Every structure is written in structure tokens, then in C-alpha cells.
User: Which sequence fits this backbone?
């Protein structure tokens, strides 16, 4: 499951970018709870990664990651194996996305593994991408922030 989570995070860094405003509330709320793994990547680190990025090959697709990463601002990740915290996180996450202009982009269910990917858009910009990933023992929430035009996705894939 952790490999799947990391793969999804990397894919989304390559394929999309986003801007969170209320999302860090969830990060702040859960970040200091015992048993939580948290990761925050700041705007400065995103710029460093973007400046160092080169074109990467993904199988038969060539993807230009540098410009995409430079459009990202931040990444927030919360992971837990505590079942009570997982339920609370899921309820809070569902509540947050219901109150926003959020669209389900992709849903994957494979046994106990479930992945939901949502986007939030404003004024023809993708501002936020949300991942909510669960399996029988772990729950992971990932939020990317930035500003990406839908056409930017088409430009990065040759």
C-alpha cells in the first residue's frame, strides 16, 4: 500500500498541480496526533525540485516535469494506521470536499485498497488535487496546491 501511495503521489506531481486554502486545516488538525505520519513540502522546496527536474520517461510517455513542478506550491500528506483516526479523517475529509467545488477525477477499488482523486477548480484553473487512499490497515490523505490550467496537462505530455 505504501508503494502504491508513493507511486500515486509521484504521478500526480508529474501530471498535475494545485492551490489549497482551507485544506491545511485538516493537515493542522491531524499533524500532531500520536501515530500520524506527516509530510509537508514547502513552496521553496517545490521550486528547488522544479529547478532540478529534467524530462523523465514514463514507459512510452515522455513527460516534461520541470514546468509543472514549478507551478506547484505545496504538498501535504497525512498517514495513519489507527482505525479511529482513519474514520475521523475520512469524515472530516468528506465534509471538506462537500463544501467546495470539487470533482471526482478517478476512483480505484481493488479488494481493500481504495483510491479517490479529486480536483478543485476556480476560474479555469485547477487549484487543488486531493488524494484519499485507504486499505485494510492504512489511510493516507495527500493534498497538492498550485495553479494549473487544464491545457498545461496536454502540453507536458508529448
Assistant:
Amino acid at each position: 500500500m505504501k508503494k502504491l501511495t508513493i507511486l500515486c503521489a509521484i504521478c500526480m506531481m508529474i501530471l498535475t498541480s494545485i492551490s489549497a486554502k482551507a485544506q491545511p486545516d485538516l493537515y493542522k488538525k491531524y499533524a500532531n496526533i500520536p501515530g500520524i505520519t506527516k509530510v509537508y513540502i514547502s513552496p521553496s522546496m517545490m521550486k528547488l525540485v522544479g529547478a532540478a527536474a529534467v524530462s523523465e520517461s514514463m514507459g512510452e510517455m515522455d513527460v516534461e516535469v520541470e514546468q509543472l513542478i514549478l507551478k506547484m506550491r505545496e504538498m501535504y500528506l497525512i498517514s495513519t494506521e489507527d482505525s479511529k483516526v482513519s474514520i475521523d479523517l475520512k469524515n472530516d475529509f468528506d465534509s471538506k470536499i462537500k463544501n467546495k467545488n470539487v470533482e471526482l477525477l478517478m476512483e480505484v477499488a481493488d479488494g481493500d485498497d481504495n483510491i479517490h482523486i479529486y480536483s478543485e477548480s476556480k476560474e479555469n484553473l485547477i487549484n487543488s488535487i486531493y488524494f484519499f487512499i485507504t486499505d485494510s490497515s492504512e489511510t493516507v490523505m495527500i493534498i497538492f496546491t498550485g495553479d494549473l490550467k487544464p491545457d498545461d496537462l496536454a502540453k507536458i505530455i508529448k
